[in-house]
Amino acid sequence: MYTFIIILSILLFFLGLLGAFLPIIPGPFFSFLAILLLQFFTSYSFNLDYLIMLGVLAIVITFLDYWVQVYSVKYFGGRKSSTIGVVLGIIFGIFFIPPIGVVVGPFIGAYLGALLESDFDFLNSFKVAGGALIGFLCGTILKFCYSLFTIWFFISKFL
């Protein structure tokens, strides 16, 4: 059973890393779940303060991931149609052109939404789509760093 928990935790860490790039997978949640499995079902013991910090960070990063993307679209001049375009672009990008579609989909969705909002102002629409891309990249970096930190946290206890 001990070996099974270790293998399951490693798989959850892998899902956490994968979730940094695929919005459909809640990466920080899986990384934190891996740490909790190790804490409660193996001999690995983590400091309670670190567990609380990692849990709070997982919640904050998940929230920021979505908020930053929407905020960056609005910051660069997008409105409701651009925001809807980002969400639809994420959904279509995941299913139609994985893994590149995860980056291209929100960009195209924000671009098309901004085109509709701005009476086909191509330059402004490109700026709004760039904001969507910046938001996506910021969220991806946050989730990837969190997942790497939890893996490092585990490996430091393992060694």
Shape: elongated
Q: Output the helix-strand order.
A: HHHHHH
Low-confidence blocks of residues: none
Percent strand:
under 5%
What oligomeric arrangement do these chains adopt?
A: single chain
Task: Briefly say what this structure is.
With 159 residues, this protein is mostly helical. It has 6 helices and no strands. The protein has one domain (2-158).
Fold blueprint:
Blueprint: H1 2-19, H2 27-41, H3 48-75, H4 80-96, H5 101-117, H6 122-158
Helix pairs in contact: 1-2, 1-6, 2-3, 2-6, 3-6, 4-5, 5-6
Walk me through the structure.
The chain is mostly helical and 159 residues long. It has helices at residues 2-19, 27-41, 48-75, 80-96, 101-117, 122-158. It has one domain (2-158). α1 runs antiparallel to α6. It starts with a helix and ends with a helix. The model has no long low-confidence stretch (mean pLDDT 89).
Keyword list:
mainly alpha; 6 helices; elongated; about 160 residues
